[in-house]
Amino acid sequence: MYYLKNSIIQDDKELGGSPQVSVLGTSLKSDVGHAALANGVILHALDFDDYHDGTMAHATVSCLSVLLSLAEYRKSKGKDMLPALILGIDITIRLSLGLGPYHYSVGWRPTSTAGRFGATAVAAKLLNLDTDKIIDAFGICGTQTGGLRQVFGTMSKPLNAGKASMDGIMSALLSEKGFNSSKKIIEGDLGILSVMTDKPDKERIVEGLGSKYYISDVSLKPYPSCA
């Protein structure tokens, strides 16, 4: 953990980000994107973060990293932060369910793939983006989606979560400034439900939307372990 944390901190220093946002457990401040990257890696490194059994996704880490970094940067109020976190976790798990078990079995990580959309949702909520800009933000994040299980057992496993956080912030900030993208990054012919799974379940994504919140289904770990 020490070497992982130190390497991330040194990377932040070398890249020279503006001192906008705190990096957890350090005196370092970095730009909002790299702080979210570092915080995501730190939060996921010990595998003590929560877990959703039905999707194999660590749903909170990328969302919480965005929340802490962007809320500090934009001076968000507490009453706006909690709904953003609940929303981000919900979207991460819903999209993971829609991608189904095949997505995981061929080597993708829903923590990183679906987690990018959750991270983007948190950022979009905190920035109060309108519907069109939220759709563009999802498109921007969707074209960056990645994260492979092949890196399990290395420092790149928590990097998956940190990079999802960083990309979520960048996607929302770009959209806020007018950057556009595909309007059908999820359900389009070449969207993630076509490219990243064999049997997409669109209905599962929206089932109970607005009444069922999946934050209540994440587990707390008694030990630092994968599950």
Describe this structure in words.
- The protein has helices at 2-15, 32-44, 61-74, 78-105, 113-126, 131-142, 156-176, 192-195, 202-206; strands at 21-22, 29-30.
- With 227 residues, the chain is mainly alpha-helical.
- The chain has one domain (2-214): Orthogonal Bundle (2-methylcitrate dehydratase PrpD).
- It is globular, with a radius of gyration of 16 Å.
CATH topology: 2-methylcitrate dehydratase PrpD
Oligomer: single chain
Contiguous runs where pLDDT drops below 50 for at least 5 residues? none
What is the strand arrangement across the widest sheet?
A: 1-2
The CATH superfamily turns out to be 2-methylcitrate dehydratase PrpD
Helix tally equals: 9
Shape: globular
Q: Could you spell the SSE succession in H and E letters?
A: HEEHHHHHHHH
Assign the structural class, choosing from mainly alpha, mainly beta, alpha/beta, alpha+beta, or little secondary structure: mainly alpha
CATH architecture grouping: Orthogonal Bundle
Q: What is the typical, i.e. mean, pLDDT?
A: 93
Give the amount of beta strand, in percent.
under 5%
Gyration radius, rounded = 16 Å
Helix content: 55-70%
Largest sheet: 2 strands, antiparallel
Tally of distinct domains = 1
Number of strands: 2
The end-to-end span amounts to 19 Å
The CATH class label is: Mainly Alpha
